[in-house]
């Protein structure tokens, strides 16, 4: 499986995913459920593969 998420993109996804998941935990009311958006960000950052990039042939990593 070829990776298409590079270093900076990966770091941003992981940090944003953790931040959104934290919002799920500490948030109040119905707005806190937006924190679930952190799950796909965190997963795609950890596995370095983004399915949304595939149809557009986007790669933010090295070009090898």
Molecular structure report:
With 64 residues, the chain is an all-alpha fold. It has one domain (7-56). Helices cover 47% and strands 0% of the residues. It has helices at residues 7-26, 38-47. Helix 1 (7-26) runs antiparallel to helix 2 (38-47). The longest helix has 20 residues, at 7-26. The chain is elongated. The model has no long low-confidence stretch (mean pLDDT 93).
Strand-helix topology:
Elements: H1 7-26, H2 38-47
Order of helices and strands: HH
Proportion in β-strands: under 5%
**Number of helical stretches of at least 4 residues:** 2
**Total strand segments:** 0
The residue-averaged pLDDT reads 93
Q: Helical percent range?
A: 40-55%
Structural class label: mainly alpha
Terminal residue distance? 14 Å
* Major sheet attributes: none
Output the radius of gyration: 13 Å
Number of domains: 1
Shape: elongated
Give unreliable regions as ranges. Answer: none
Describe the structure concisely.
Helices cover 47% and strands 0% of the residues. By secondary structure, the chain is mainly α.
